Each structure stands twice: as C-alpha cells, then as structure tokens.
Known about the structure:
Number of domains: 2
Number of strands: 13
Structural class: alpha/beta
Strand order of the largest sheet: 3-2-1-6-7-13
Amino acid sequence: MSAAPLRRGPAGHRPWPCCRRCPGIALDLGSARTRVWIAGRGTILDVPTVTFPGAGAVHPIRRGAIVDTPGTARMLERLLGNRLPRLGRPLVVVTAPVLDGVAFRAEALTAVRVLRPRTVLTVPTARAVALAAGADLCRPLMVVDIGAHVTEVVLLSDGAVLDARRTALGTRDLDATTTADRITGAVADMITAMLRQDRTSLTLDAIQGGLLLAGGGALRPEIVHRLTGQLHAPVRAVPAPHTAAVRGAARLLEAARTHPAFGRRQPVPHLPD
C-alpha cells in the first residue's frame, strides 16, 4: 500500500482519518457474543449475538459461521446505527476464523455494508489475539481460541497462518456429558495432528515456547490446568481473553488510521488479509 499525503475533499470534507464523520470500528462477530470497539471512545461493546426479526431472539451466527446475513446486518444496525455520525464513512476491521474464513469474510462484508463503510479490512482471529497479547510475531506461535461454540488452534509464523485446526466444541457445550476434558482432549488431538504433519520444527518450537490461550475457555482454570498437563507445555492466557480478538483488531485499526494511504478520497471496498 503506497503512501500519499492527506488531502481535503470537496466541500471542506477532511479525508479519513482526520474527519470526525469517518470513525473507525473494530468488530468481533462471535456465535454467542458480538464485541465492538469504536475509535475515540476507548470502550468495548459486548452484547449477545442475536437479532429480533419477529417474536423471540434469533442467532444469526452459529458455530463460527454467518448463517443469516440480513439478520447480522440488522443486529449491526441496531447496535451501531445511533452511535455513528449520520454522514460518517467508517473504516471497519473485522476478525474472521482461519478455517472457512473465505465464506465468513464474504458474508461479513455483505452484513457490514449496513454501516456504509469507507473500507473493510479483515484479520484472522488468531493474529488479532496475538496482537492483543503483544506476542512476538517473528517467532512461531500457537494460538488456541476456545470460544462459546468453536475451538480453533492456529500456528503462526512471522504473523502468517501456517496451519490450523478447528472443532465444533466450546464452553457453551459444557454440561454433565461434555466436560472440560473433552475440549482439552480435542485441542491436544489437533496439536498432535499438526506435529505429525509438520516436516519442520516450527510446530514443536511454538509448543515449547508456550501456547497462547484466548476466548472464554481461557477464563476457566480447569481448562488451563488440563491443557498444561496434557501437552506438557506452558499455557499462557491472554489478559481479558474474551475480548482479545476485538482488542487486536482495534490495534490494527489504530495503525490504519495513521497510514496516509487511507487519506485518499476513493473508497476501497475490501482488502483481504
């Protein structure tokens, strides 16, 4: 992305990021919770991922997939419609799962159009978590994100995704028959499969350096304890792990705010990660 000086637009309109009518939004669209960070406010909105097209609540995102795009758009309009300037054209950064991320990004882009974005950027959730944790992205890193309905294990190196696994299990599945052992066992199985298929030392190096744990599962001591015992490796929970993804997206948003390329008047519909 080339740099260009900021210029005023027509009718005295100041280009983003200088224009107050053009805010920035970081979005983490989860199956159970949607989290939003709005530039300049310093707070995170944390609400259930539900929409109300009629009687009763409907969940437009299930098991890490957007199954009701219009419903997701209505949810975003209800949540953010009155919080944005009427003529604002926000830059939006959306987290996306690594696996099935192409489909998720396409549906998220369609839903986010209700906010009239100037630009939409997507970032893999695992990379956003690493950024929120202040992790060293120059070394191999294993990110384990245990959400409400999906658990994803991702190997990063130099910030790029090298391998990933997921299972449709999360903290909302915990009950008398689905215990923490089942979730941690699934994580251990995924990491073991990654080790077996890796012909380099990157996976092993990442494990020996310690797993980075995020999502609501990182708030459960029994999960952290069992993972440490099963993998015989250090496990470090990200501070405030349930909001790590949106905070990482917010860091990317703030970096984009200072990039002169975004001072250009022409909108950019989508920049893939």
